[in-house]
Amino acid sequence: MKYFLDRGGIGDILIRLPYYHYLYRSGIELKILIPKDKYPVLSMFLPANSLEVINQGLLAHSRCYSIYLKMKYNISDSDALYIPITYNHKKILDAAQRLNMPTFVYEGEMVTCDLASYGFKIIERIKGADNAVLHVSRHVDSYFRSLFGGLPSYEELFLSYPKMLRDTKLQRCYDLVIMTDAGAKYRRYPTELWQKFLNMLPVALRIVQVGEDDLSLSHPNLTRVRGASISEIFSIIKDTPLFVGNETGLTHWAYLCGNRALCILGGGDRNRFLPWDIKDIHVISLFDKSCICRGWHCHKHQLGDAAAPCILSITPEEIYQGFLEIRDKL
User: Fold this and answer.
1) Alpha-carbon distance values, 273 to 139, 276, 277, 305, 315 (Å)
2) Pairing with 303, which of 74, 171, 263, 296 sits 20 to 30 Å away (CA)?
3) Do residues 176 and 296 make contact, with C-beta atoms less than 8 angstroms apart?
4) Residue 163 has pLDDT above 60, yes or no
5) pLDDT band for position 218 (50/70/90)?
């Protein structure tokens, strides 16, 4: 049995999902050990017998809990543990050490802790020319190819993206999804600029707004989705041909499932998630070319709830032109 210890945002998990899906379909026995809040996402694509919910925080600190898990899942010393996360997360590393198994860890996009002290097998990170920021999928691909043979090509894995196991039938069809929320508030496009963009759209365009934020927007054909499950949101996005949104996991799902998407990108995410180097992935990313941020974080993150300058520099007119571009390619 091969065990995977995973965590992260929806976007990170969606990048690793094609590899899990291929290994499972190839007959490899695997268990993905995940926090409770990640189960709904992975269970839409992988069968329940390949997923196990564990308390990763408790595992990082409790020897008793590690013994319990090894007994519950009949983990032997010959089993292997894989950590495909592309950044060094101390809680995950401490949890893996408690399980006391042969463990394979990625060196990390940016090395932030002393991996050597854990005694794990370290998979060397792939490096971009002139230390350029590489797309996160390239790091994930490098990790899995270092450990598993016979994988399809990088392009094939993402262009033949796994389908949802269960689909929620829509009560209403939409033309455009707008994602107004974001994981960090400084990455959210402001309400007044969203409204200016909506004012430019045709009255007959059927729009659905998703996200947990409280942005109050208006359009003659705007529907706000509240209280929906994550699987319902995924189905809405899958069945709606156009998507415009902030950089979130749901934005990445919009184009990975085959639709046309436009992302308002900022806060240091350029190159890590967007743009892609696969030409048949249909997503446009709008960003401030003068932004100096790298990695994950805006260097002005102390702004708190305020949008980052690179977000504010993107005008509603630019978003509208991007919308026309993805619409005209349908």
Assistant:
1) 11, 7, 10, 22, 21
2) 263
3) no
4) yes
5) very high
Residue whose pair of structure tokens reads 């949008």 in the numeric block: 307
Residue at 270: amino acid letter: R
Domain at 2-159, CATH class: alpha beta
Fold equal for 2-159 and 176-328: yes
Contact 138, 278 (CB under 8 A): no
HSE at residue 5, side-chain half, CA atoms within 13 A, is 30
Domain at 176-328: CATH architecture: 3-Layer(aba) Sandwich (3.40)
Which amino acid, residue 83?
Answer: I
For residue 279, name the pLDDT band (cuts at 50, 70, 90).
confident
Residue 113 token pair: 């802790």
d(C-alpha 214, C-alpha 126), whole Å: 40
Order the strands of the 51-53 sheet from edge to edge: 51-53, 30-34, 2-5, 80-83, 103-106, 121-123
DSSP string, 154-206: HHHHHHTPPPPSS-PPPSS--SEEEE---SSGGGSPPHHHHHHHHHHS-TT--
* Cβ atoms of residues 187 and 247 within 8 Å: yes
Nearest CA-CA partner of 8 in 114, 107, 85 = 85
